[in-house]
Amino acid sequence: MFKIKSIYSKIVLTIFGFIIAISIIIFAFTALIRNVIDEPSIYSREITREIKFMGRIVEEKMKNLSAVENNEEIKNMIEDFSNKTESDIRLLRLKDRKTLFSAYYDNENINIFSNKELDEIVKDTEKEGATRKYLRTGNGEMLFNTLIRDRDNNIYLLQSKHKIFYPKERRAFLWIMLFLCILIIALSAFPISRNITNPINKLIDASQKLASGKFGYSVDVKSGDEIGRLAANFNQMSERIRQLHENRKNLLADISHELRTPLARIQTDAEIIIDKNLSEEKRRDYLNDIIEEIRCMNSLIEDLFNLSKIDLGFEKLNLEDIEFSTLMNELYNQFEASIKRKNIEMEFVDRLNNQKIRADKAKIKQVISNLISNALQHTEEGGKIVITGHIVDGKIEISVKDNGKGIPEEELPKIFNRFYRVDKSRARDSGGSGLGLAICKRIIAFHKGDIRAESKLNEGTTITFTLPL
Ligand SMILES: Nc1ncnc2c1ncn2[C@@H]1O[C@H](COP(=O)(O)OP(=O)(O)OP(=O)(O)O)[C@@H](O)[C@H]1O
Ligand SMILES: [Mg+2]
To answer: What is the CATH number of domain 7-170?
Structure first.
């Protein structure tokens, strides 16, 4: 169905509609009023004068004639009058009620009255010189009469029939039109107003709900007009507020939950240090523990804020073209000490054919270093880590493969969830908080890429991510 796309056009069209309807009403009304009141009275007064005038002229003519019947001159005169006045005219001799002449402008016969009626007309006409009589034919006709005499004193009735009202059907049509227009205006006022105010009411309702804390509440307004667009923006805003709220809630919950354990440990350590009998060596151990806990807490908070910033869209990508070998050199230097300590063999395979990686360098480095650090953590001494860069299906694929302990198949889908650790007790010891892969996933998604994991228990794990070229 035809849909109006904006309130602006709806209002313009409505105003035009009303103007047209009101014009029709005014036209119909004036037509009816003028035709019933003004026009007939002015018009019929004029015709009354006209018929008297015609009567006098015909009478003059008759006075010079010996016989009126069949006289050509009078016949012509009457035909001429009929044409000029656009009416049907007849001349009736009263003594024998015979129509001597008639001229039909409309090709319609003048009603033949009963003798009684005719007598009445004659009586009235004798009194007033000329009379008019409304004909109940339904055609809005009026009959104008005047009396004339010939030189033998025979009396004649000269009649002319005019259409001066709208015919019955036309008047009925005007009344119906008038009524219909008023009805249409009255009936359309409601749906038109409802059409405009309903969505506004829905928005008012929704904004109240949002104000009262129902974040994410959306309005169901599907029209494409201004209010529809406002509703779509409102829904977006509401969803955004929900995300922010959810994020803030999660962040607070995560921080308080994850910091409780290290804080408890720090407290215990500090309480022990206070004990004066503690040897200097032990005291140093406990202090080192405290420092390590604080380091972990700091990195945890930083990770959480990073995740939060990416989630909320506050982070921006500084895209640049990165060379695979440069990236790998930097990463190798970063991990050199741990690699050597664990006697791990590290291999880089460059199959990118000089294709540069278009990405945010700091963020991609964070992803790969998270993956390397996981691989290092879960690979036994003397193990091997291979980092490969190649192009698959028009995308850059980088994978970090180790031959460590692997991840059980049923755990694989969960490892990208925040705070997810396969081996909870062991992860605690190594200080992992389960955020590394969640951060990787967010950063890669931010680059419009994918990340996936393949693993076989006791054989090793490969984490692969793609980046668009
Ligand atoms: N290469 C791997 N080999 C075996 N298990 C892995 C490997 N990479 C990740 N995992 C498992 O997935 C879990 C989640 O990894 P993730 O990097 O998200 O957290 P984490 O390493 O425990 O902590 P964080 O990275 O925040 O310090 C790890 O706890 C580990 O159990
Ligand atoms: Mg990790």
So the answer is: 3.30.450.20
Share of the chain above pLDDT 90, in %: 42
Q: In the Cβ-directed half-sphere of 209, how many Cα atoms lie within 13 Å?
A: 17
Which fold, 226-312? Helix Hairpins (1.10.287)
What is the pLDDT at residue 172?
84
Atom of ligand 1 nearest to the CA of 437: 18
Using DSSP bridges, classify how beta strands 345-351 and 155-163 pair: parallel, antiparallel or unpaired. Answer: unpaired
Ligand 1 atom closest to Cα of 435? 26
Question: Is the CB of 55 inside a 6 Å radius of any atom of ligand 1?
Answer: no
Per-residue pLDDT of 177-204, as tens digits, reads 889 988 988 888 888 888 888 889 999 9
Domains 7-170 and 226-312 share a fold: no
Q: How confident is the model at residue 427 (pLDDT cuts 50, 70, 90)?
A: very low
Listed by start position, the domains of the chain span 7-170, 226-312, 319-468
Q: Is the pLDDT of residue 1 over 60?
A: no
For the Cβ of 421 lying below 6 angstroms from any atom of ligand 1, the answer is yes
319-468 topology per CATH: Heat Shock Protein 90 (3.30.565)
Quote the ligand 2 centre to 146 CA distance (angstroms). 120
